[in-house]
């Protein structure tokens, strides 16, 4: 297996030495600055491998000569496409997190029910504690089944709120947010506004 890989690498290196800047197999954006396929390496947004050859020799050759407008245009066109795709993905994700009036009404009803259940539970606990403090034990004991029922009701309401929030794209403690950062990586040294001038 290693021998096959070495042979393939040697073959690619020989082929790379024969390539010129105008060869269609060459990745022009890589020669200009970088290939957009390298942008999101190691993330779930990875674009996959580039189908063209990345030659450091040709990149060095290009950097030592006058810029070729066709190369520059292709580089900026690819950047614009990636930026447009990311913006569309951000907008689509943001729409998924928007709440409808019905969603807001469900949240309001569920949280109101939860607050009522919590209040009922707290009042029963306070009442039982007060009865015990006043040594009215028989009366305090008669309230224990009501407290158990209130606690079951509270647990049911808490679960209902949790289920509702999870169904609406929330975690139990924090609303999901869409990252809107569209800044290019640090290895991008070009100004995309230059594309308009080409």
TrEMBL record:
Which GO terms of the molecular function aspect are on file?
Answer: mRNA binding
Q: What GO biological process terms does the UniProt entry carry, in alphabetical order?
A: mRNA splice site recognition
- Does the record carry ATP-binding as a key word? no
Keyword annotations:
Coiled coil
GO CC terms in record: U1 snRNP
Where do transmembrane segments lie in this chain?
none
Q: Which InterPro entries match?
A: Luc7-rel
Question: Which chain positions lie within coiled-coil regions?
Answer: 90-134
Q: Which PANTHER family match?
A: RNA-BINDING PROTEIN LUC7-RELATED (PTHR12375)
Q: Which family does it belong to?
A: Belongs to the Luc7 family.
Q: What is this protein called?
A: Uncharacterized protein
What organism, scientifically named, is this protein from? Wickerhamiella sorbophila
| Lineage, top ranks | Eukaryota, Fungi, Dikarya, Ascomycota, Saccharomycotina
């Amino acid at each position: 297996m290693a021998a096959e890989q070495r042979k393939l690498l040697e073959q690619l290196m020989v082929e790379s030495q024969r390539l010129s800047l105008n060869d269609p197999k060459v990745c022009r954006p890589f020669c200009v600055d970088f290939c957009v396929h390298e942008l999101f390496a190691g993330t779930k947004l990875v674009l996959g491998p580039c189908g063209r050859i990345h030659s450091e020799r040709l990149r060095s050759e290009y950097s030592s000569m006058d810029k070729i407008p066709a190369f520059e245009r292709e580089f900026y066109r690819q950047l614009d496409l990636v930026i447009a795709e990311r913006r569309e993905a951000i907008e689509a994700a943001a729409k998924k997190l928007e709440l409808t009036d019905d969603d807001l009404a469900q949240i309001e009803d569920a949280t109101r029910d939860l607050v009522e259940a919590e209040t009922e539970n707290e009042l029963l606990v306070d009442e039982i504690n007060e009865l015990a403090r006043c040594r009215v034990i028989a009366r305090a004991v008669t309230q224990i089944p009501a407290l158990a029922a209130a606690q079951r009701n509270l647990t049911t309401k808490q679960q209902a709120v949790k289920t509702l929030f999870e169904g609406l794209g929330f975690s139990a403690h924090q609303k999901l947010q869409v990252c809107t950062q569209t800044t290019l990586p640090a290895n991008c040294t070009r100004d995309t506004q230059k594309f308009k001038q080409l």
